[in-house]
Amino acid sequence: GITAVICTYPLDMVRVRLAFQVKGEHKYMGIIHAFKMIYTKEGGFSGFYRGLMPTVVGMAPYAGFSFFTFGTLKSIGLAQAPNLLGRPSLDNPEVLVLKTHVNLLCGGIAGAIAQTISYPLDVTRRRMQLGAVLPDSEKCLTMVQTLKYVYQQHGVQRGLYRGLSLNYIRCIPSQAVAFTTYELMKQLLHLN
Fold first, then answer.
1. Nearest 5°: phi and psi at 88?
2. Of 16, 33, 49, which closes a domain?
3. Is a pLDDT exceeding 80 seen at residue 154?
4. 178-189 residue pLDDT tens
5. Burial of residue 146 (number of CB atoms within 10 Å: 0-12, 13-18, 19+)
6. Which of 24, 63, 97, 103 is placed for a possible disulfide with 180 were both Cys, Cβ 3.0 to 4.6 Å?
7. Highest mean pLDDT: which of 8-22, 54-68, 102-116?
8. Confidence (pTM)
9. Rounded Cα gap, residues 52 and 49, in angstroms
């Protein structure tokens, strides 16, 4: 996961910069222009990696809480209501797995919890990515500086968790499908 993020991070940087442009104020005329401007005006290749540290640091708690929550919900569900929530695995009928709709629900809940825990690091990443185009960029050079600055200026709800509800709309279905696919692939590959 970290290798993939490092390889694709410049694309994310350009995407964020292009998305941030408001009507009438276009600093970047397109993708290629944005790449050229960031490279020449923001220190070469290092300019493309502003905010990488909170992304990498946020990956561990996100994945950890996501898998922990899903595994816990799965275990509790199958232990407490096996006939209602479970069904025999495709590859091993002696093993119970969650029914598809229950899998989707547990995956969505796991995604929501993990996203809630790691979201301040996502806000930090975006703030650092936009740092060069914002007037107070000198206050957001490191991850810790940025977290402190956002908290001091905007607080928890309007700062560190700003936009979380909108992010749930993307995250919950994505994680629901990801965990359901994961569980199905375990059965298809005979890993149960």
1. -65, 145
2. 49
3. yes
4. 999 999 999 999
5. buried
6. 103
7. 102-116
8. 0.83
9. 5
Long-range contacts of 159-165 (CB under 8 A, 24+ apart): 159/123, 160/119, 160/120, 160/123, 161/119, 161/120, 161/123, 162/123, 163/123, 164/115, 164/116, 164/119
Instruction: Give the domain extent around 137.
Output: 52-189
Q: Cα separation of 51 and 93, whole Å? A: 47
Residue at token pair 């209602």: 84
Looking at the structure, do residues 26 and 113 belong to the same domain, yes or no? no
**Alpha helix stretches (DSSP H) within the chain:** 2-20, 31-41, 52-80, 82-85, 100-129, 143-154, 164-188
Strand partners, 86: 98
* In a shared domain, residues 147 and 76: yes
The confidence score (pLDDT) of residue 23 equals 67
